[in-house]
Amino acid sequence: GDGGDRVGVAPFLRLLPREAVGVLRRARSGVPGGRVHRLLPPPPPPHRRDEPGGNGNLEQTYSSAAFRSVRGTIGVASGKLYWEGAFTAGGTANASGIGFALSTASLTSFAGQAGSWGYLQGGVTRANGGGSVSYGASYTTGDVIGIALDLDAGTCTFYKNGVSQGQAFSGLSGTFFPFSDSYDNSKWILNFGQRPFTYTPPT
Questions:
Q1: DSSP calls for the chain
Q2: Which pTM does this prediction carry?
């Protein structure tokens, strides 16, 4: 009766040093024969003073002028996934990014470092330790970034406030985890479908 087939329970989003428990559901994509996977956490656990993340560990921020990243704890190697990150505080200009990563990606660096792929504030992408590549529009406080990861096709497209920025990456193969970074008080609020998305997911 909840609109999806519950297929497992496992920790999903990790905001060091605590973890939130997530529920992996499948939701119909609206495409005949197709599905979009959504990663949905349960109600937030009781607040603890030593938890760095609020809102059930779905908020990420870091107050120092240094990078700190978060990575999901459920890896996915196939299917279509969509999630959103609301960028609610800017910190240092062009320092933050969002995307996905392998399990080997460092949590003390930025999206696009070795083992991760990211869309950065300044309107560039970085892939697996490579250099910056001009991509889409820049984004700032108040914008919502959607990540559409199609691991059947091996591609990823980012959305800014519901508008596609074009295909960012192709040839993707492996087991990937949602990933974002924070620097100098920048803040992400992540939505994996535990509440209605701000923008309609692509099909």
A1: --SSEEEEEEEEEEETTEEEEEEEEEEE-SSTT-EEEEEE--SPPPP-TT-S--TTTTEEE--SSSEEEEEESS-B-SSEEEEEEEEEE--STT--EEEEE-TT--SSS-TTSTTEEEEETTTEEEETT---EE-S----TT-EEEEEEETTTTEEEEEETTEEEEEEE-S--S-BEEEEEEETT-EEEEESSSS--SSPPP-
A2: 0.73
- Reading the chain (203 residues) residue by residue, the pLDDT tens digits are 333 332 222 233 333 323 332 323 323 333 333 334 444 433 333 322 223 455 666 777 666 666 778 887 788 999 999 999 998 877 666 678 999 999 999 888 888 899 999 999 999 999 999 999 999 999 999 999 999 999 999 999 999 999 999 999 999 999 999 998 887 677 888 898 888 999 999 98
